[in-house]
Amino acid sequence: MHDNAIHVIGGGLAGSEAAWQIARAGVRVIVHEMRPSRSTEAHKTDALAELVCSNSFRSDDAETNAVGLLHEEMRRAGSLIMAAADAHKLPAGGALAVDRDDFARHVTGALTAHPCVAVERGEVAGLPPPAWDSVIIATGPLTSPALSSAIQGLTGEGELAFFDAIAPIVHLESIDARITWRQSRYDKAGPGGTGADYINCPLSQAEYETFISALMAAEKTSFHAWEASTPYFEGCLPIEVMAERGRETLRFGPMKPVGLSNPHRGGERPYAVVQLRQDNALGTLWNMVGFQTKLKHGEQVRTFRLIPGLGQAEFARLGGLHRNTFLNAPKLIDTQLRLRASPRLRFAGQITGCEGYVESAAIGLLAGQAAAAERRGVAWQPPPVTTAFGALLGHITGGHLAPEADAAGSFQPMNINFGLFPPLPQSDSQPAGSRGKGKERGAAKKRALSARALADLDAWLAGPWRSAAE
């Protein structure tokens, strides 16, 4: 199996997707996953594609949301991650949320059953052996110290890192239904939903002020001296860090009450709200949306029980904090996702500087395609920059700032967003239906960007490189 096989190091979402794309092309692939012989601070199982944070893949709206567009592009490209997500989705309003255990079992089963795939357990401690002439490193944000040090030595770059936090999960039976109610924002149903997909915990102004005061006074996880200057990723800030930016910050972030009406109070909109999203198919576990935290565990229990409806909450998992690692990708990686200093090595997933489950899997998909095409002697063509694939790839391989212009090293992880897409041509800058103002014009522009992206994606998928590679 090792002869001429492509090696994928890391069995997370990016590694699993990369391996699937390689196998689909009829090329042998070996997935190296260090769990269970060596675990991480965040993983709980030895399953491939384990979701260690939220169970949400975020919006599934392919017309006006960039991550929903990326969902659709991945589906059209034959993504295993999206197939598993669609097979095990849970009600979550307009979002695509999954049963995390069934999702991981689906991915693990699909890969282990494929005749072109082998899974080898054990840590790759250091750089891959020279005999491995095609390697995808998809070790994610929790790359083992040995491999991380080896990569740092090879690239000559200082390690870049940021902290990422995970949210608590609550047992349904401990939530007080006399206070809470079920409703999605604006009653939006979304994939597999009914419009009543979230449990809402309402707070009055006095209750909100009490909660904020307790949150800011609670004892937090302390950092080692070498961790003190490590920045957070802005898209996943701990709630206490958000609260430190102003007492009203949470009310305009994860605790915003817009689109919700409390039936226990005559349909009035609460001053603030905490939403919980279903976390498993049985509906027995619910995730506190946006409540990633670095509070100590005992402080979490005390503080979160101040939230109306959670006074007797029992937690299946408390929030936590872990250190993520990523490369200065625009400087180090080419548009084929190869390390410039050693082209036999490709990188995929969060280690490249993208952020989010879907984004990581998307880069894994592209890395797998590129490696498989190369093995078959075909020149892989990167996706058009007008697609979500291309926009994301562009950001991590040069779309941020030219390396010589980025002397401050300001490259940071980023979720897919329409700001990464090239603008519409001037003639299309006011597409049909965009004559209105504000939100109407913005939505029309997003629909036009999405329509262009999917048309260009289909042409790319039908291109000569694809037929030759498969």
Question: Could you list some keywords that capture this structure?
Answer:
single chain; 470 residues; alpha+beta; FAD/NAD(P)-binding domain; Elongation Factor Tu (Ef-tu), domain 3; 2 domains; 13 helices
The arrangement of helices and strands along the chain is EHEEHHEEHEEHEEEEHHEEHEEHEEHHHH
State the total count of DSSP E strands. 17
SS-derived structural category = alpha+beta
Radius of gyration: 22 Å
In short:
With 470 residues, the protein is of the alpha+beta class.
Any overview of this molecule?
The strands form four sheets. This protein has a six-stranded mixed beta sheet, with helices on one face. The protein has helices at about 15-25, 65-75, 80-85, 100-115, 145-155, 205-215, 240-245, 295-305, 330, 355-375, 390-400, 440-460, 465-470; strands at about 5-10, 30-35, 55-60, 90, 95-100, 115-120, 135, 160-165, 170, 180, 200-205, 270-280, 285-290, 315, 320-325, 340, 340-345. It is globular. It is built from 13 helices and 17 strands. The chain has about 475 residues and is of the alpha+beta class.
What secondary-structure arrangement, pairings included, does this model have?
Layout lengths: L5 E4 L3 H12 L4 E5 L22 E4 L6 H11 L3 H8 L1 E2 L4 E4 L1 H14 L3 E5 L13 E3 L7 H11 L4 E7 L2 E3 L9 E2 L15 E6 L1 H13 L21 H6 L27 E7 L6 E4 L8 H8 L10 E3 L2 E7 L2 H4 L5 E2 L2 E6 L9 H19 L12 H12 L39 H23 L2 H6 L1
Helix pairs in contact: 1-10, 2-10, 2-12, 3-4
